[in-house]
Amino acid sequence: MSKKHQQRSGSASPVNPISSLASDPPSVQAAAEVRRLLGKNLPSRSLFEQYRPLPQWFLRPDEIGNIHGIKHEARVMVWQELLARLLIRDGKALDQEALRWAAATHDTQRMTDGSDFPHGERAAAWVEQTLRHRIPERSLATVVYLNTWHVPPDISAPYITPELAVFKDADGLDRVRIYDLDPKFLRWGYSKTLLQHLAQALLEGSEEKYYQEGYDLFDCVIAAAIELGIVIAE
Predict the structure, then answer these.
(1) pLDDT digits (tens, 9 = 90+) for 61-90
(2) What is the model's pTM?
């Protein structure tokens, strides 16, 4: 696979709406701490490739580049993977397969980028109908639960399972893209003290690779994570 992977067609490069800023010291330190904690258990590029969201999965295929499109799904995928691995390292049991599929599908059935409260329920129904033969049977119900309940506030969910708490934090970490990440609403210590310091760096890195270097909507995120040193290039 070439350096730029699946490069977008067209000769003109769009203007990057988010200025690319150099990583500040907290993000560098946080990345180093993630590497120290996970060691050889850092996730790989090839792992994420298995869960790549496809344009045809989206209810609005023309909007896959927007704030709830493929780049968002990919960043949530990176965050849930790192958070889950950190928690599993500490002895927590988690359904990682369910978390990965929820990351890949949770916003695919949005009708609008604004208020669309039922989009989680639609994503859950879509997964049951479309991906039930691809997602392991033991994880399907958890994917449905995560998609359904990632939208309402915690108090509305029947139960905040460990997977749901991980997934809500992963989704929440990418609120940096709408300038609305408030660490006090994160649920896990690793999210509050470690991953939040990487959220802006991953956003800026993925936007730069998409707008300036020609990576596609998914690969720009994974390439940025590799550059940060929180994903390995295998």
Answers:
(1) 999 999 999 999 999 999 999 999 999 999
(2) 0.89
pLDDT for 11-51, tens place per residue?
344 444 444 444 457 999 999 999 999 999 999 999 999 99
Give me the phi and psi of 135, to 5 degrees please.
-85, 135
Beta-carbon contacts of residue 65 (< 8 Å; ≥ 6 apart): 71, 217
DSSP 121-139: HHHHHHHHHHSTTTS-HHH
CA 197 to chain centre: 15
Show me where the domains of the chain are located: 25-228
Distance of alpha carbon 100 from alpha carbon 218, whole angstroms: 14
Q: In CATH, what number does 25-228 get?
A: 1.10.3210.10
Q: Are 218 and 52 in contact (CB under 8 A)?
A: yes
Decide: 195 and 173 in contact? Cβ < 8 Å: yes
